[in-house]
Amino acid sequence: MRAEEVRVRALASDDLDACWEIEREAYPNPWRRDHFDELLDLDAGLGLAAVDQDDGILGYALGWVVTDEAELANIAVEASWRRRGIGARLLYAFAREAERRGAERVWLEVRESNAEARRFYDRHGFLMVGRRRGYYDRPREDAIVMAADPADLEEADEGRGLVRDT
Ligand SMILES: CC(C)(COP(=O)(O)OP(=O)(O)OC[C@H]1O[C@@H](n2cnc3c(N)ncnc32)[C@H](O)[C@@H]1OP(=O)(O)O)[C@@H](O)C(=O)NCCC(=O)NCCS
């Protein structure tokens, strides 16, 4: 299956067990399972799933939008599906939906040592705007704060010709 055939849709609570399986593999220090439910239950919550033809979960993006600010709190793609553009599809869809809800900026934090994710955000239009010292636990580490204007991401998306989600 090609990345173009992957569909991005709203995340539902029934999807969260599958997300958590991906989460546990993706991070040495994963979120608690109930954190997914709590975030998805928020009025401000914004969750998206990347799914295959059988609606199986390949990845997810989760965050929130409050007034004109969006926070991308978590994004992960199942390991065997990485480097095929699925993360980018989720990122752009998140930015598009955040913008539709009024966000003028998308923010995120990433572990300083997470070179893979930093490259991913960098490549897809996020800029480093700050650092939070000792933000992460186990191991204690700084967060790099990154931000992007959804409209700029939209332009980058057009340039890359990623398929639109409906
Ligand atoms: C970050 C993540 C979501 C990216 O998803 P993805 O589907 O692989 O991303 P895409 O295929 O859309 O983008 C790939 C681009 O990101 C960068 N990138 C991603 N993984 C990389 C790696 N291992 N080494 C170097 N660059 C990498 C490259 O620019 C790459 O482009 P290329 O394949 O043309 O070189 C995925 O690696 C992941 O789930 N990581 C574990 C969870 C995580 O760390 N999430 C971020 C927390 S802040």
Please give the structural blueprint.
Elements: E1 7-10, H1 16-26, H2 33-41, E2 45-51, E3 57-66, E4 69-77, H3 86-100, E5 105-111, H4 115-123, E6 127-136, E7 141-148, H5 150-160
Parallel strand pairs: 4-5
Antiparallel strand pairs: 1-2, 2-3, 3-4, 5-7, 6-7
Helix pairs in contact: 3-5
Describe the structure.
By secondary structure, the chain is α+β, with helices and mostly antiparallel strands. The protein has one domain (3-160): Aminopeptidase (3-Layer(aba) Sandwich), CATH 3.40.630. The protein has helices spanning 16-26, 33-41, 86-100, 115-123, 150-160, and strands spanning 7-10, 45-51, 57-66, 69-77, 105-111, 127-136, 141-148. It has a seven-stranded mixed sheet, sandwiched between helices. α3 (86-100) crosses α5. The longest helix has 15 residues, at 86-100. Coenzyme A (COA) is lined by residues 26, 75-77, 82-88, 110, 114, 116-117, 119-120, 123.
- In the predicted model, the low-confidence regions spanning at least 5 consecutive residues are none
Indicate the CATH architecture. Answer: 3-Layer(aba) Sandwich
Specify the helix fraction band.
25-40%
Strand order, sheet with most strands: 1-2-3-4-5-7-6
Strand content: 25-35%
CATH topology: Aminopeptidase
Largest sheet: 7 strands, mixed
Broad structural category = alpha+beta
Q: Count the strands?
A: 7
Name the CATH class: Alpha Beta
Write out the distinct hetero groups bound to the structure.
coenzyme A
Envelope shape: globular
> Number of helical segments?
5
Order of helices and strands: EHHEEEHEHEEH
CATH superfamily: Gcn5-related N-acetyltransferase (GNAT)
Number of domains: 1
